[in-house]
C-alpha cells in the first residue's frame, strides 16, 4: 500500500514539474519581451559625460561592462534578459538611436556584451564617434517587431531617416543600403572616410546578418531639433 502511495506521489511530482516546464516554455518569449520592454531609461547628457569619464580613466566598471568580443555574443534568452534588466544601471550609456518610421527608439550602450545587447543597441568599436567616419551599432533581431532591432529587420527600408544623438547634438542619416551579408563580414565595422552609420542584426535564420547603412545628411544641436524629434529624444528610450 505504502509503495503504491509513494509511486503515485512521485508520478504526481514529475507530472507537476513537466507542467511547470511546459508553462515556462510557452510563456518564456512573452515574459522575456516584457522584461526587455520595461527598460525605459532616461538618457541624459550628464550620464553620457559620466560614461566618457569612466572610459577615459578605464575604470573598473567600464572594464567589467564593456566588451568588443563578438565571439562571446550569445542568443538572447530569458535568463540573460532578466539578469541584464536587474543590473541595467551598469550599461555605459553613449546616446540614443531613433528611426521614427521603423518604430525604433533605443539607448546606445558601449560594447557588445550580452548584458548591453539585451537592452540596447551596442557600439561595435572602441572610441567611435557620431558623425565621424563609420559608426557601427549591433542589436538583437527579435521575432517581436517592436523589441530591440526587431523593427530593423521588419520595417527599415532605403530612404528612411536615422537619428543618433549624444544628447548634445543630433546626427541625421538617410538609409541608402539594405543588404544581407555573411556573419563573417566584420569588415563592415571598419572606419570609413565618409560619415555613415552601420546597423547590424541577425537575419531570420540567425546564421547571416542584415546590414543597414545610412549616410550623414546633417547635424544640429538637440535644442534646434523639430518639436516632434526633440520630444521623442527627450522622453525615455523604448517608450
Tell me the name of the CATH homologous superfamily.
Sortase
CATH architecture: Beta Barrel
Query: In percent terms, what proportion of residues is strand?
Result: 25-35%
Number of DSSP strands? 8
| Share of residues in helices | 25-40%
GO molecular function, one term: cysteine-type peptidase activity
Pfam families: Sortase
Active site: 140 (proton donor/acceptor), 202 (acyl-thioester intermediate)
Keywords: Hydrolase, Membrane, Protease, Thiol protease, Transmembrane, Transmembrane helix
What characteristics describe this protein?
239 residues; alpha+beta; 7 helices; 8 strands; 34% helix; membrane
Notes on the structure:
The protein has 7 helices and 8 strands, in the order ααααββαββαββββα. With 239 residues, it is of the alpha+beta class. It has one domain (39-234): Sortase (Sortase, Chain: A). Strands 1-2-3-4-7-8-6-5 form an 8-stranded mixed β-barrel. The N and C termini lie far apart (60 Å).
